[in-house]
Design brief:
The complex is a heterodimer of chains A (117) and B (115).
Chain A: E1 3-5, E2 10-14, E3 19-21, E4 24-26, E5 32-38, E6 44-50, E7 56-58, E8 64-68, E9 73-78, E10 87-94, E11 106-107, E12 111-116
Parallel strand pairs in A: 2-12
Antiparallel strand pairs in A: 1-4, 3-9, 5-6, 5-10, 7-8, 8-9, 10-11, 10-12
Chain B: E1 5-7, E2 10-13, E3 19-24, E4 31-38, E5 42-50, E6 53-57, E7 64-68, E8 74-78, E9 87-94, E10 105-106, E11 110-114
Classes of the chains: A mainly beta (117), B mainly beta (115).
């Protein structure tokens, strides 16, 4: 079965510092990859997605992510973090194989980002 | 364009009761998925509906059920509530639920507390 791993449960950075959140997936074929962000008590907001093509994808709020097939990774990056980026970040994978893939995202456990002023 | 809406936003029930949650997808979206989010288990897929038919189902007991109406609005029902059902229930919609080609957009969630 497919799985998603976010190795870092909690990351703390200073405002203005760079950020990288790690995500690794396990699946026999190339999955379709997503990063979502969740503020406390809120739903999930899509930051960016990778379906195919250029392996470096740009998202909202200045985030980007790079798909590396050889490492089965899809790490999220931001060059300069703002205090408003403090939230929980989820990596997710989806597939287009019909049946048990319809409408289903498999999520990592999430990474909580704390930003120090 | 309006986003995914969920009602109610908060709900308190007691063990043994049943509950119904509602989700209205983005206009034009025909696929609705439901997820349960808990601190211990994270985000887990419950089921997906498309054109009033359940196409996919996660590993949850039969107490969890859902349906979809002709206007794509969806409801989920949990019968005989247990303490462990306390969670944030998220609804997500997409055009056709083919997540290799499509994107899911999430609602704000319904926070269910079971006492």
């Amino acid at each position: 079965a497919q799985s998603v791993t976010q190795p870092d449960i909690h990351i703390t950075v200073s405002e203005g510092a760079s950020l990288e959140l790690r995500c690794n997936y396990s699946y026999g074929a190339t999955p379709y990859l997503f990063w979502y962000v969740q503020s406390p008590g809120q739903g999930l907001q899509l930051l960016l997605k990778y379906f195919s093509g250029d392996t470096l994808v740009q998202g909202i709020k200045g985030f980007e992510a790079e798909f590396k097939r050889s490492q089965s990774s899809f790490n999220l990056r931001k060059p300069s973090v703002h205090w408003s980026d403090a939230a929980e970040y989820f990596c997710a994978v989806g597939f287009n194989a019909g049946g048990t893939s319809y409408g289903k995202l498999t999520f990592g456990q999430g990474t909580i980002l704390t930003v120090h002023p | 364009k309006a986003g995914v809406t969920q009602t109610p936003r908060y709900l308190i029930k007691t063990r043994g009761q049943q509950v119904t949650l509602s989700c209205s997808p983005i206009s034009g979206h025909r696929s609705v998925s439901w997820y349960q989010q808990t601190p211990g288990q994270g985000l887990q897929f419950l089921f997906e509906y498309f054109s009033e038919t359940q196409r996919n189902k996660g590993n949850f007991p039969g107490r969890f059920s859902g349906r979809q109406f002709s206007n794509s609005r969806s409801e989920m029902n949990v019968s005989t509530l247990e303490l462990g059902d306390s969670a944030l229930y998220l609804c997500a919609s997409s055009r056709e639920g083919r997540l290799g080609l499509d994107t899911q957009y999430f609602g704000p969630g319904t926070r269910l507390t079971v006492l």
